[in-house]
Write a structure and sequence with these properties.
This protein is an alpha/beta fold. The radius of gyration is 14 Å and the shape is globular. It has one domain: Alpha-Beta Complex (Maf protein), CATH 3.90.950.20. The chain starts with a strand and ends with a helix. Strands 2-1-3-4-5 form a 5-stranded mixed beta sheet, sandwiched between helices. The mean pLDDT is 98.
Length: 139
């Protein structure tokens, strides 16, 4: 099976950790850091309307990111992250630590919502661990 990542709030941490595994080149297709809204649109086909209506940190955007990456590539699993790592940028409805992980396979697509505590580094690390756990469940 082949896998690819498109990361926003984790900024490449998932891809970095994955490439530390010897022999991973046999299964890892690519990792894209789509931090800006523009990159989400251009690289992954996220709709401007979706970004306007729900914001970059949303279940809808995480899903469009993962599905867009799956459709762009020939991978079996595409995983996206979008969230608020902090320390600023949070709100009552979208607090610091809110992370959406989108997962798309040829048979299914869904989003996992989590809220992590801690500083920026801790939130990014916890999101990365959660992403790997979601991949483990699929496998």
């Amino acid at each position: 099976m082949k896998i690819a990542f498109c990361e926003s709030c984790t900024g490449g941490l998932i891809s970095n950790r994955f490439t530390q595994i010897p022999g991973v080149s046999q299964v890892f297709d690519r990792g894209i850091i789509t931090y800006s809204n523009r990159s989400k649109i251009e690289e992954l086909g996220v709709k401007e309307d979706t970004l306007s209506k729900y914001g970059a940190v949303s279940e809808q955007v995480a899903l469009e990111m993962a599905v867009g990456l799956l459709n762009k590539t020939k991978v079996d699993i595409a995983l996206s992250t979008t969230g608020i790592a902090g320390p600023t940028g949070g709100s009552k409805s979208k607090p610091v630590g809110l992370v959406y992980i989108g997962i798309a396979t040829r048979d299914n697509a869904y989003v996992v919502k989590s809220t992590f505590s801690g500083d920026r580094n801790t939130i990014q690390n916890r999101a990365t661990i959660k992403a790997f756990n979601e991949i483990r469940k699929i496998l």
